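Team,

Forwarding the record for the chain on the shared tracking sheet. I've put the sequence and predicted structure together so nobody has to dig through attachments.
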Amino acid sequence: MADRKTPSSPPPAAKKEVQWKWWAFGVAVLLLLIVVLQNSQDVEFKILFLVDTSAPLFLLLLFAAAIGAIIGYTAPILRRHRHKTRKEYGKD
């Protein structure tokens, strides 16, 4: 009877990990929407000292946020790629 294996208990239910990145993204989007909705007035601006024009401030804010999101998403990818390339050529 000593050789008999006792049935092992089932593994405890894995805790669901809180997806903090999605929460942070949701809060950032909510704050951006609040700022955008509060700034609906028209503003004048220049594009590369060539064009003087006006547009609603919320469009400019959304455009700036999109540019920031693109840079924030692609910069780490490009940095990783550059690091891998340097390792491949033995320059690291």
